[in-house]
Structure formats: C-alpha cells, structure tokens
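> call design_seq(struct)
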C-alpha cells in the first residue's frame, strides 16, 4: 500500500513547479510543507527532514552545499538551475553586480569564474564624512579592502559583497542565458560600480573595455543622475570621466557632464599604484602607460 507522501507526490511536484524560483533554502521547504500539509494529507508525524529526504530520493530535487569561511549553507535545487540563481538565493534581496553584471550586459568577452552578489548594508547615520587630501592619499596608498565571504559552487566561486545602502538604486530584473530571471544592476549602475571597485571587475583594463563596449547603449545623462543620488564621499566622478575620455568612444558633450561635478581633490584610478601618471583634466592619478 502506498504511503501518504507517495500518494501526494504528484501534487507536491505540481506545487513546486508552479513556484517562480528553482532554488530553495531549508526554510522555504519547511514553509511549503507546513502550508500544504493538510491538502497533501501528510501524516502529522512526518518531519521536515523526512519530507525533504523523500523529495531528494524520489523527485528531481537535489542539494548543494556551500562552505563559507564561517558557516555552511545548503540549497535545494529543482531541476536545471544556473550558478547565478544559486548565488542570488544566498542572501535576502541581494543582486548581481560588478563582473557578473558586466557579463550579463555583454560588457566583457570573458566568462568570469567568480559570481558577485551584493547584499546592501542597513542604513547608517551620517558620520564624519569631511574629505581632506591627506585622508584620500593615505587610503589609496594601501591595498583595497575586499570581501572574504567566498564559497565554491562547482566550477565557480561566489563572493558576497556588502555595499552601502542605496535602496537598491538601479537594480532591475533581466533574463539570463537560460531564460531565468535575475536581479542585477542596470547598465548605468554597473558602469559606476566597476569604476568604484575595479578589483571586483577584472581590473582597470577590463573596466576600460567595458566602457568602450557600452558606448552605443549607455545613457550618460542617466549615469550622472544615478551618481548624484549615490552621493559618494570620494570623487568617483573623476574616475568615470577619465574612463569616458580614455575609451575614445564618447562625444565631448557626454564627457563634459562629468566635469560639472566639483573637482576639489586629487584622486586615484585604483589602490596601491606603483609608477603613475597624472591627468590634469580629471585631477586623477593612473598607472604609468595605462
């Protein structure tokens, strides 16, 4: 005689397939069983573990274990899923960013083996944001700080970033190569982010190439509007203006929009440069020969 869960299996499968996502946490599956236990006529004695174990053994549900430096995460996958979907399941309201967003917007010819997702920090009060040249010089004399929240998933690494709170400014939903819907920064926000953190974007040469490839589709008016809303303490508009000029792909009228921002300090294209040159137009140091 079939068990109750065996009888309910077709209904369970249909319920899962109706859901918009294909990657689940343990909590997701716990809630799914709790919400449908009566309709599926599951035994009250059936535990969440037994429910999941049955699905793993008898349906297309599989599990993936991701080991971060300070914890382990388990995700349950329904059918064919992409590494992007797994990455986006790891933190609430996170989104793809930097090199991953470059790839999705066709701004790189590389297939990045690290997937970058950003979970914004909670809103903070305004601290001491006074900017002085000495503080800038000291900060960029050292290595840039990077997130070590990294896990391996198949052939990929997933790095979780914790950027400043922007209210998810410029975050959109876009279809991936497999048709999956992905949360990702839009083109203009992506170009800003990769200029700010080239270390997460393949380096400054890849960033420059991305600016070249974006020239036909980006709105510099939209980019500058986003940049004003982001309201960075550091003058990253000088970096973006430099990339626009150096790419050779933008009209002078577009480049001039970045010169409308104040230029009160000397700034840097990246951290800890050796031999460097200086752009008077952008008050910007960049690696010699770049």
């Amino acid at each position: 005689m079939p068990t109750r869960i065996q009888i309910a299996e077709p209904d369970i499968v249909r319920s899962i397939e109706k859901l918009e996502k294909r990657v689940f946490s343990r909590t997701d599956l716990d809630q799914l069983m709790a919400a449908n236990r009566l309709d599926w006529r599951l035994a009250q004695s059936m535990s969440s573990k037994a429910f999941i174990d049955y699905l793993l053994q008898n349906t297309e549900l599989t599990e993936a274990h991701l080991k971060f430096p300070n914890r382990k995460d388990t995700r349950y996958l329904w059918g064919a899923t992409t590494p992007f979907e797994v990455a986006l399941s790891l933190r609430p309201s996170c989104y793809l960013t930097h090199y991953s967003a470059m790839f999705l917007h066709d701004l790189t010819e590389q297939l990045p083996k690290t997937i970058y997702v950003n979970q914004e920090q909670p809103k903070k009060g305004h601290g001491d944001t006074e900017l002085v040249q000495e503080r800038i010089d000291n900060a960029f004399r050292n290595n840039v700080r990077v997130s070590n929240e990294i896990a391996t998933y198949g052939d990929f690494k997933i790095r979780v970033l914790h950027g400043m709170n922007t209210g998810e400014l410029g975050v959109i939903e876009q279809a991936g190569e497999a048709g999956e819907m992905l949360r990702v920064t839009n083109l203009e926000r992506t170009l800003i982010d990769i200029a700010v953190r080239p270390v997460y974007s393949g380096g400054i040469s890849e960033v420059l190439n991305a600016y070249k490839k974006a020239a036909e589709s980006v709105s510099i008016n939209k980019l500058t509007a986003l940049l004003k809303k982001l309201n960075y303490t550091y003058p990253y508009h000088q970096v973006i203006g430099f990339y626009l000029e150096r790419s050779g792909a933008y009209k002078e009228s577009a480049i001039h929009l970045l010169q409308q921002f104040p230029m009160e300090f000397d700034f840097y294209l990246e951290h800890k440069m050796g031999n460097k040159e200086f752009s008077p137009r952008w008050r910007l140091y960049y690696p010699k020969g770049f």
